[in-house]
């Protein structure tokens, strides 16, 4: 199982970076996670576009062009002996060169960024798990105000997610000033009276690639949908509540803070969207 580090493909266990790497010391970097089906990366261009947005957001020059990224990612995928993968990409501000402070808030000069990638088997939910749905808890979104940057400094997200894990739930649904933002590691949708609704992209949430696909599929298949501010009351009185992400795909939340969502089972719109998503994947990726 190979990884990629700074221009080289090497066994995962041999990948090494300096303890003075700013990713390690300061959480100074960004990442992407790309699902791969049957060896084909899903929406690669959109992921690379989002990576560029994140790099711009932290004022780090992209160390590779689009074609170079594509080439390396495809090479990494080809080196794995499993077909469905999640490819993790991380770019940090690197390790300060000789003569520069070892740890400084100020950006180092002339430090080449660290580029690291690895792939893992992609494990998506089984039919049974989807039929059961998951539980979630709610919490106040206490993260910074640049949640559309996919930063590796995830401490707030980790602490928020752990609140769900502590009570054997799958996700934490976050609310800021009385409005839905997203999940600790997912986007959140509500359904009321057959209408699918999600918050609009903003600095308060990461615009998920899955989020985009869900809205596109809704448009293509005539499912009533809108984006707009979602109030806490809309979340608590939704007929359906979903989490979406590259690894969770479309997962129904059937209980929030111990209270059943709608009928307490995955709803018809979630089931339809999941079917559309699976078909879309098959058509696009396995063709
Ligand atoms: N996270 N919001 C947050 C905060 C996320 O961390 C993620 C995904 C998403 C959904 O994005 P996408 O649909 O592109 O996966 C939304 C990945 C899976 C992770 O951090 O592991």
Textual characterization of the structure:
Strands 7, 8, 9, 10, 11, 12, 13, 14 and 15 form a nine-stranded mixed β-sheet that branches. The longest helix has 18 residues, at 268-285. By secondary structure, the chain is of the alpha+beta class. The protein has helices spanning 22-26, 44-57, 66-78, 127-132, 155-165, 209-220, 232-236, 268-285; strands spanning 2-5, 8-11, 29-37, 40-41, 85-92, 114-121, 134-140, 171-176, 179-183, 187-192, 195-198, 225-227, 240-245, 249-256, 259-260. It starts with a strand and ends with a helix. The chain has two domains: 2-121, D-amino Acid Aminotransferase, Chain A, domain 1 (2-Layer Sandwich); 127-285, D-amino Acid Aminotransferase, Chain A, domain 2. The structure holds N-(5'-phosphopyridoxyl)-D-alanine. N-(5'-phosphopyridoxyl)-D-alanine binds at residues 33, 157, 182, 185-187, 206, 208-211, 244-247.
């Amino acid at each position: 199982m190979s990884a990629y580090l700074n221009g080289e493909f090497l066994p995962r266990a041999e990948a090494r970076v300096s303890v003075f790497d700013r990713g390690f010391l300061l959480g100074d970097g960004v990442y992407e996670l790309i699902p791969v089906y049957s060896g084909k990366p899903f929406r690669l261009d959109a992921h690379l576009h989002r990576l560029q947005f994140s790099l711009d957001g932290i004022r780090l020059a992209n160390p590779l062009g689009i074609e170079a990224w594509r080439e390396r990612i495809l090479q990494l995928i080809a080196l794995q002996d499993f077909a469905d993968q999640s490819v993790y990409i991380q770019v940090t501000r690197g390790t300060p060169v000789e003569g520069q402070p070892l740890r400084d808030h100020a950006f180092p000069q002339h430090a080449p960024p660290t580029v690291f990638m690895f792939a893992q088997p992609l494990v998506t939910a089984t039919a049974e798990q989807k039929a059961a749905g998951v539980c979630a808890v709610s919490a106040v979104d206490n993260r910074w105000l640049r949640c559309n940057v996919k930063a590796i400094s995830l401490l707030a997200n980790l602490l928020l997610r752990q609140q769900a894990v502590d009570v054997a739930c799958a996700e934490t649904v976050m609310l800021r000033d009385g409005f839905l933002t997203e999940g600790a590691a997912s986007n959140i949708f509500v359904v009321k009276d057959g209408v699918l609704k999600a918050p609009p992209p903003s600095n308060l949430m990461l615009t998920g690639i899955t989020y985009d696909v869900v809205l596109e599929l809704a448009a293509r298949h005539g499912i009533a949908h809108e984006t707009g501010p979602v109030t806490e009351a809309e979340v608590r009185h939704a007929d359906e509540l979903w989490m979406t992400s590259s690894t969770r795909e479309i997962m129904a939340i059937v209980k929030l803070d111990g209270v059943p969502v709608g009928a307490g089972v995955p709803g018809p719109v979630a089931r339809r969207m999941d079917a559309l998503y699976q078909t879309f994947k098959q058509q696009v990726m396995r063709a």
